[in-house]
Amino acid sequence: MTYDGRMSEPKPGPSLRAIPEGDNRERLICADCGYILYDNPKIVVGSVARWGDKILLCRRAIDPRRGFWTLPAGYLELNEATSAGAQREALEEANARIEIEALLAVYDIPRLSQVQLVYRARLVDDRIAPGAESLEVGLFGWDEIPWADIAFPSVRWALHHEREAQASGDLSAHIGLPPGLPPDPTQPQGL
Amino acid sequence: MTYDGRMSEPKPGPSLRAIPEGDNRERLICADCGYILYDNPKIVVGSVARWGDKILLCRRAIDPRRGFWTLPAGYLELNEATSAGAQREALEEANARIEIEALLAVYDIPRLSQVQLVYRARLVDDRIAPGAESLEVGLFGWDEIPWADIAFPSVRWALHHEREAQASGDLSAHIGLPPGLPPDPTQPQGL
């Protein structure tokens, strides 16, 4: 089909709550056609990408948390490997080419229906530039990181996990939160 | 809303392919109401649950792979912690109460748009019984596992990862496949 412009305006879609036959949970159902939406938690993929001892951060051009700093990260697409998704997000948000090294951390955030997979990565070169979703991008040493202006708790978690991995030489993936960081983020969004 | 029986018959829902305005990928759109479906990869959660040196397996009562043996596993629900999802699946499929110990493995299966998180767990007791999706359930020593009748490649991967963890004492999570096992499963389904 060719794209029909009329479809660009927001539609309610599945918005009635009911338990379908043979199921045991409420699902959203479309009032127009009866379609049952089986909504599922989402996978967020991102990276802590290093250039020497500096780390790539992006200042968000979009809500939520516009103007705050984040790691390049976003929703995994269908049929996309998680490492490929992390590379795509670095390219889209910072025009950055990264080489994936290993899985850094898995963050399980049921409140947001998100599982986040964050990779350790190396920038291939230091040519970075803001993509459509970034106001600016930068490379930061640990002491230069704008800690007061970090967009999401999981960005702090991942930065601390990377710091620990560097310090200890233990590069196995971390599950859950680094010690001393808040387990229950006060902000409403994830990575 | 109360449940409307007419909605139990399958509906096409979003089934036209087009690139919405401001997007860069084809999405499925509902021909009736114009709703745009942003479909995402799914998270599968499961467990390798031990009772002494035996492991819990379930013989599938449903397609795909009806009659074959699998680990208790299924799709993570909204607002559900991944470990809670693994516990729920063990209860639903084998009436088994399990205690989660640690994340055993993360399997990234882009061909199926799945990320699988498999936990190491311990059965609280050995009272198990088939749930609605299982023909039978059982506890198997390593040499008793019905290797020829395993439902999905990732079940084999997880069993081997658990075996390695027991042998080496290294209980950190495994990412990817154990050595010597096929990286590209020939069967069309995941865990």
Explain how this protein is built:
The structure is a homodimer of 191-residue chains. Chain A has 191 residues and is of the alpha+beta class. Helices cover 15% and strands 34% of the residues of chain A. Chain A contains two helices and eleven strands; from the N terminus they run βββββββαβββαβ. In chain A, strands 4, 5, 6, 7, 8, 9, 10 and 11 form an eight-stranded mixed β-sheet that branches. Chain A has a three-stranded antiparallel β-sheet with strand order 1-2-3, with no helix packed on it. In chain A, strand 8 and strand 9 form a beta hairpin. Chain A is elongated and about 55 Å long. Mean pLDDT of chain A is 87; it is low at 1-7 and 184-191. The interface between A and B is large, with 56 and 56 residues.
* Multimeric organization: homodimer
Largest interface: A-B, 56 and 56 residues
Largest sheet of chain A: 8 strands, mixed
Radius of gyration of chain A from the CA trace? 19 Å
Query: Distance between termini of chain A?
Result: 35 Å
Describe the structure using short key phrases.
191 residues; alpha+beta; 3-stranded antiparallel β-sheet; 11 strands; disordered N terminus; disordered C terminus
Write the layout of secondary structure elements.
The structure is a homodimer of 191-residue chains.
Chain A: E1 14-18, E2 27-30, E3 36-37, E4 42-51, E5 54-60, E6 69-70, E7 73-75, H1 82-94, E8 98-109, E9 114-123, E10 134-140, H2 153-168, E11 174-175
Parallel strand pairs in A: 4-9, 8-11
Antiparallel strand pairs in A: 1-2, 2-3, 4-5, 4-7, 5-6, 5-10, 8-9
